[in-house]
Amino acid sequence: MSDTESLAFVLVGGVGERLIPLTNHRAKPAIPIAGTQRVIDYVVSNIWNSKIRNVILPTQHLPGSLNRQIKLGHSARFGVSAEQYIDDSPPIPAKGSDLGRYHGTANAIAQHASLIRKEAPDVVFVFGGDHVYMMDYRNFERFHLEHDADLTIMAVKWPVSDASRYGILEVDREGRVIGFEEKPRVPRPLPEDPEHCLVSMGNYAWRYRPLLEELATDAAKEPVNDDRDREEPERYTRQDFGRNVIPSTLRNPTRRVFACDFSQFLVKGATEKERGYWRDIGTIESYYDTNMELRAIEPAINLYNPHWPIYTHVESGLPAKFIHSSTRVLDSLVANGVIVSGATVERSILSMVGKVEDGARILDSLILGQNVIGAGAQIWRTIVDKWVTVSPGETIGVDHEKDVARGFTLVDGGHEIKLEMLRDGYRCGDTCITVVPRAYEFSD
Q1: What is the CATH number of domain 321-436?
Q2: 99 Rama sector, left if φ>0, alpha if ψ -120 to 50, beta otherwise
Q3: What is the C-alpha separation between 256 and 148, in angstroms, rounded?
Q4: Residue 351: what pLDDT?
Q5: CA angle 119, 125, 130 (to 5 degrees)
Q6: Where are the domains of the chain?
Q7: Is the pLDDT reported for residue 141 higher than 50?
Q8: Max CA distance (Å), the chain
């Protein structure tokens, strides 16, 4: 709606504990994906393509690479003016303190209450910064305004077996939210579909006055870091949208809260098979699997859609290069500046600027950039973080016991086997991860 004024917040301050050690040195939304992009590029590109021009990113945990990506990949497009901007916003220091802190997702927005009040937008959007999907938010906005909602939650059907890490919605026939439970151990399935439930995508559209009122109500409660907020929700809070603010809003009988079905929308240029594609980059396994989906022969979403581009900052203008007739690269994404010399790369992603030397084999893996993979090295089902050199002849993901002994993080079915990282000796350094999302066996 062209005459609607909106303000968007993108939540990017979380630590991303389930993605350690990838998040030991960067914010979760700054993690590389699909070879040339970072996760944050998806929501910011959706915002730009949806004609939203006022954006705040409350930054906190290790914001360096995230700020650089926003500055070099997006800021010039938005510009800097009172009418159009994209700004990172660190927390406000408390009195007598040199450092500020956001104490939860709700507190990250509450600290910007004066800006919201000053701009008085028709819609305040709150988006998660660590999701991969394509959406025209104008459809979200239209749904919110047409339903005269105080709060609209973007939702998607999700398998019950994998839904316990999300907020679960219960709605009536008109789509009005009548129940919400954050990260339940046993998610409530849909009445007509026992295999699926309706989960919150962590994307919200608010009227600004109800938002400020609910944030003020939450701020008046005593902040805690335990489960007292569940036992006495009127007294205690974790200052979190899903855990505290949304349930509190639903307890207010005057509030109109609706769920908007994400799968009913497609961006321009998308095909039917892309409908409902949304991935939360919340665990090592989901991060790995999402990359594998994006590099597939027929990817889950079209990264080459000219009508809905995913903007980014390209770190290198150098072309990729393939040397020698023995080089074999199949079903893979290879980014700028990568040199593959007499090596085999299959079903993998090679990110910016690196070298894969003679006789090396990389299968089903993510190489995150600025890497050297030595001659004869073999890497299978592995994430190798940036700036890591793999010595000639070494193996990763081939010998389970060897990888455990070297202290790599191993993941099997989403369960971490070992979290400690190697810090001395082996040249893979302390940020190499072996990911084992399926059976641990080497395949030719």
Answers
A1: 2.160.10.10
A2: beta
A3: 8
A4: 95
A5: 135
A6: 6-294, 321-436
A7: yes
A8: 70
pLDDT at residue number 412? 61
Question: Residue 291 above 60 pLDDT?
Answer: yes
Return d(Cα 260, Cα 114) in angstroms, integer: 28
Instruction: Please tell me the CATH code under which domain 6-294 is placed.
Output: 3.90.550.10
Tell me the two tokens of residue 174.
């008109």
Above 60 in pLDDT, residue 428? no
Q: Which two tokens stand for residue 378?
A: 């073999």
- How many residues are recorded in the chain? 444
pLDDT of residue 425: 30
Residues contacting residue 284 through CB under 8 Å, at least 6 positions apart: 18, 19, 22, 383, 409, 411, 416, 433, 435
Q: Is the Cβ–Cβ distance between 211 and 116 less than 8 Å?
A: yes
Q: 114-118, 375-379, 433-437: which range is least confident on average?
A: 433-437
The H or E element containing residue 249 is helix 246-251
Cut 0.85: pTM above it: yes
Per-residue DSSP letters for 31-46? Answer: SEETTTEETHHHHHHH
Judged on CB neighbours under 10 Å (0-12, 13-18, 19+), 31 is buried
Q: Which is nearest to 436 in space by CA: 381, 390, 357, 354?
A: 381
Question: Percentage of residues in the chain with pLDDT exceeding 70?
Answer: 91
In single-letter form, the type of residue at position 431 comes to T
Q: What is the mean pLDDT of the chain?
A: 89
Question: Who's near 39: CB < 8 A, 6+ residues apart?
Answer: 28, 29, 30, 31, 33, 129, 130, 131, 132, 281
Contacts (Cβ under 8 Å, ≥6 apart) of 340: 320, 321, 322, 323, 327, 329, 334, 350, 355, 356
Alpha-carbon distance 9 to 17, whole Å? 22
The pLDDT assigned to 148 comes to 97
pLDDT at residue 97, as a whole number: 58
Q: Which amino acid is at 104?
A: G
pLDDT at 385: 87
pLDDT tops 90 at residue 253? yes
